[in-house]
Amino acid sequence: MSEPDFVRDYIIRMCEMTKDCRPDMHEPDEQGLSIEFVEGFGLDNACMGPPESEPYRKTDAGFWLIKDEGEPTERREWFNLACLIAVVRSGPWRY
User: Fold this and answer.
1) Residues 61-93 pLDDT 10s
2) For tag attachment on the chain, is the N or C end more exposed, with fewer CB atoms within 10 Å?
3) Cβ of 72: how many Cβ atoms within 10 Å?
């Protein structure tokens, strides 16, 4: 079974944002990574972008990962929670 494009994209973005963190993700805040609290209420991935990109639909839950690499501006990436579940379920580690 091949993974959908959004799963591959999600994994690439997540790995890029967390590349400087420990593999077990222990204390990522000490490695320049933080999170902005979850926004939205629904567990769906119909709206893949962040809430402000879809002003008419703010229900799909997600979160921002924020990478501070010592630059004047930080990098922010939006991750949909339903997509996170899809990524975990699509891996070879699933039961």
Assistant:
1) 888 888 886 666 678 888 888 888 888 777 776
2) C
3) 4
- Which run of H or E residues covers position 20? none
Q: Which two tokens stand for residue 47?
A: 């709206």
Listed in sequence order, the residues at least 6 apart from 48 whose beta carbon sits closer than 8 Å to its beta carbon are: 6, 80, 83
The reply to whether 44 falls in a domain is yes
Task: Supply the range of the domain harboring residue 53.
Answer: 5-90
Rounded to the nearest 10 degrees, how much is the dihedral formed by the CA atoms of 5, 10, 16, 19?
A: -120
Closest CA to 85 of 1, 6, 2: 6
pLDDT digits (tens, 9 = 90+) for 29-54: 888 888 887 777 777 777 666 666 66
CB 60 within 8 A of CB 46: yes
